[in-house]
Amino acid sequence: MIELGNYNTLKVLRSTSIGLFLGDEEGTEVLLPNKYVPDHFEIDGDLEVFCYLDNGERPIATTLKPFVKRNGFAFLKVVEVGAYGAFMDWGLEKHLLVPFREQGVEMEQGKKYVVHCYLDEKTFRLTGSSRLNKFLSNEGFALAVNSEVEIMISRKTPLGREVIIEDKYKGLIFESDVFKPIAIGDRMKGYIKAVRSDNKVDISLQQIGAKMLEPTAKFIFEKLQENNGFLALHDKSAPEEIKNTLHLSKKAFKKAIGTLYKERKITIADDGIYVL
Question: Is residue 139 part of a domain?
Answer without folding.
Answer: no
